[in-house]
Structures are given as C-alpha cells and as structure tokens.
Design brief:
The chain is an alpha/beta fold. It contains 13 helices and 14 strands. The chain folds into 2 domains: 170 residues, Rossmann fold; 194 residues, Rossmann fold (3-Layer(aba) Sandwich), CATH 3.40.50. The longest helix has 19 residues. The radius of gyration is 21 Å and the shape is globular.
Length: 383
Amino acid sequence: MTRLPVVLDDVAVTIIGHPWAPIGMGEQLRSHVAACNAVHLHHRVFDIFRYAQRIDAAHGRLLEGLEVEVPPGGVRIFHVNGDEVDTVIAAFEARGGVFDGGYNIIVPAWELPAYPKVWALHLGKFDEVWALSEFIQESLAVSGVRSHLVGQAIEFEAGPCLPRRYFGIRESAFVMLHFFDLSSYASRKNPEAVLRLFDLLRMDDPYADLQLVLKVKNGERAAEEWAAGVADDPQIKVIATPLDTLGVKSLINACDVFVSLHRSEGFGRGLGEAMGLGRLALGTGWSGNVDFMTTQNSLMVGHELVKLKKDAYPHWRGQSWANADVAHARALLQPLIADRARTEALARRGQADVLRTHGSRAVGVRVVQRLSAILAESPRFNG
C-alpha cells in the first residue's frame, strides 16, 4: 500500500470540473478521482456547473460520498480547458468558493502541437498546470506554459462485461473497433482511413471472418446520416446509440483490436483503455498515445506530418498533424488476424505495460508526489 506523507492528511484536496459529464474532460477528471482512490488520498469532488445527468451507475459508485456543495481551501485541481476559465471561476465563486483562498491547479486538454495562445493566457490565473501526456506538455511549452506531467489513468472498474451478442457482434469474427465523434471535427479521428484499412484487409482474404464495429457519437442525427453509407455492408456494424460506462467497457472488451488511425490525440484514451482490458491496440505512432504505446506492446502505424488546412480544426494556423500510412497498418495487422496466439501475446504485454504506467495506482502515486512537492515548496503552506 502507498504510504501518504502525513502532511497531506492536513490539507483539503478538491477535484473540480464535470464529474458526471460523458465527455473527455469528464473522463479525465474521473480518472484522477480513481487514481486518488487507488492510493487512499483523501479528496473531495466539486461539480462546477451541475448540468450533466446523473444516470451512469459506474460514475455513481466512483463519486459516492465524495461530492461537496461548497469548495474548501487547500489544493484545488480544476479539470477544465483554457477557454472555460473565466466562466468556471465565476461559477466557482458564485457557489461560495474563494478562488484566491487556495492553491489552484488546472489540467487542460489539447490535441495539436501548439496549445492556443489565447487560451494559454487564462492558464496564468492558476498556481500551476498539470499535463496529461508528454504531447500536451510539449504543446503547452510551445505557448510558454510550464507544466508538470501527471498523466491520466485508464483502468475500468473491475466487474463483468456484456457479451458480443448484446451489440449484435458475431461470436466467430475477428473484430476491429473504432470510436469517433461526428459532433466535433471527426476528421481528427480519421474514420475514412479505418474504412480503407478494412477494405484492404478484405481484399487480402475475401472469405476472412472479419467484422468492423464503428461506435459513432451522434451529433444531431449526423451519426445516422453518416452510417447510411455503410449500413448495407454485412461486415460493418454501426453503433450510434449512447453507451454508459459499462457499455463502453463491454464494447471494447468485445473487440480483438482497437483501431485508431488518428491524425492527432492529446492522450488517446480509447487506445489506452483497450490495452488496459487486454485488447490489441493499433494506432498512429504519433501524439499522446506514444506515452504508453510502443512497437513491442502494440501496433504503431507509420505516418507523415502535414500542415492543417484552413478551418480543419480550431486554432489550425501553423499547426501540423499526421496522415497515417494505411498500407503500413494493413501490413501490421494482416498477419495477426489468423494468428490469435500472437495477437493475444502482444495484447497481454500491452496490458502489463499500460497498467504499470497508466493504471490508477501509478497515476495516483504521481499525484501524491506532486502534491507533496507543492506542500513542501509553496509559501502558502509554509508561511
């Protein structure tokens, strides 16, 4: 068991953001709650806007007994982005918090090589910044922001999963799974490249028992409209309905390989979660996912960096991202489809590696180490 410094018992630690929201910022906050739980760090959670429905049972179990209505002093860890800062501080103080009455940390997210400078100015209102990946740390540095690398945990709650048949996935198939969001710049996730990869693999062996599962986040019927283009293909399953945490965990667990031919990832949570569940991961070998993916524990796809085109993504000017080499992805994956033993061996190595570096306990230890340094170094706690 991790032994906490005694001084941490005397300082309130509050994690602030969107604890119930089914969005990326909500996931990263919950990952830090799980990390703190894993090392028995006493902490509280503050729902800054209270807008999200409280319907996910897994979120309820994680957050039970942790929420507070008025944020205390001590150390506050804000899981919000630079463009939210002013609104969040106003809401924080309207709810009874005193922003200047504690040591304030912000944990931003970003997916391109340079953090937006207009947002970086707002990060200066905090005492320090934490980074979720080396890629984000470097993107912050480009915009003049120093940060501490803490990472985020990728472990799901232990427990059973729903079977393949719940999703209409064939029991016999080698299943490829891809997640993307049509409500927010789907081109970054690059689903078209995944479809090309699937077509190439079918050309290699037209009789192979393959199935591609596309989990599409809906954006005002956009998912259904997009899915219409592939809905008649018997080897492609499109899931556009929202899933809770159990559903997401079960769907990942039902696949043989999680595929992400992304152009850029701040962290690459889907890949990490798949590895944590013991599933093979195939991903573009660039950006946040290289913190935990290597050529020894997963399938790292080659790429070329290209300049973003106008309006391809927010704050696109001067930015680059990756074009994954689909032919290389095909060459990596094709031999493993028929070699289940090799697939499982590589997946087991990936699971061991990612839980060692990004399991809840591993991230919890880094949180404790950084908080201990803050308490030792900050005049606020040593006056």
